[in-house]
Specification:
This protein is an alpha+beta fold and about 220 residues long. About 45% of the residues lie in helices and about 15% in strands.
Length: about 220
């Protein structure tokens, strides 16, 4: 597992999930959520990441990101470590905050981008925190649905361009809202179920490409 999650190559797209240790909540209030969001934005800028989607729940945190440089593992380590220390200082508590390393799936270029970002953005609705993804405060969904609510470090324009290309029409944000809303009554999506061995999501050719990368890595 440790080997296959460390697949660094320029331009890779990942779906990442970080869980609280022992199912504990990672945040206690909106101050914690705001801090996590600011730290994510800071580290995304530092790493030149393209954040396509994120959502901060009490447990877990979900991300979909592209790494122009192969620096996801190091960047996530810094983000999670900084977040854990900040929470410990604020609440004067010890112990591990996160459950080991973050769970990571490699996503095929742009092919499955709609599937994974839609599933991430729907998570607050599935958790019964909001009625619609665009209403979630601690998520990139509001910015995808409404230009005035975008965060400058989230690649909303790239994501909306993908949706516009898939669904057509001149209003990309409307196409996004229509697609996300249409499936809310359906069973919860789990892109990972279609992933090869739970960690590579894409076509057979893409799976073969990633497997070749893994075989070419030195043993850790």
């Amino acid at each position: 597992m440790a080997r296959r999650l460390r697949i660094p190559y320029p331009g890779a797209i990942y779906q990442v999930m970080a869980r609280g240790n022992g199912r504990q909540d990672m945040v206690r209030d909106d101050d914690d959520r705001g801090r996590l969001q600011r730290e994510l934005g800071r580290d995304a800028v530092r790493g030149a990441w393209r954040i396509y989607a994120f959502v901060i729940l009490s447990n877990p945190i979900h991300l979909v990101l592209k790494t122009p440089q192969p620096n996801r593992a190091r960047g996530m380590q810094v983000f999670l470590s900084t977040s854990a220390h900040a929470r410990a200082r604020r609440h004067r508590c010890g112990g591990h905050l996160f459950q080991g390393r973050s769970r990571t799936e490699v996503v095929e270029d742009q092919t499955d981008l709609g599937t994974v970002t839609r599933a991430v953005h729907r998570n607050p609705v599935r958790a019964r925190g909001v009625d619609h993804p665009a209403a979630g405060r601690w998520s990139s969904s509001p910015g995808s649905a409404h230009r005035s609510r975008r965060l400058e470090w989230v690649a909303s324009d790239e994501l909306l361009a993908w949706w516009q290309g898939e669904l057509g029409g001149s209003d990309a944000a409307r196409a996004y809202r229509r697609s996300v809303s249409a499936g809310l009554a359906e069973p919860a999506e789990s892109p990972g179920r279609q992933a090869y061995q739970g960690w590579v999501l894409g076509s057979g050719a893409f799976v073969d490409r990633v497997r070749a990368l893994v075989r070419g890595q030195p043993r850790r």
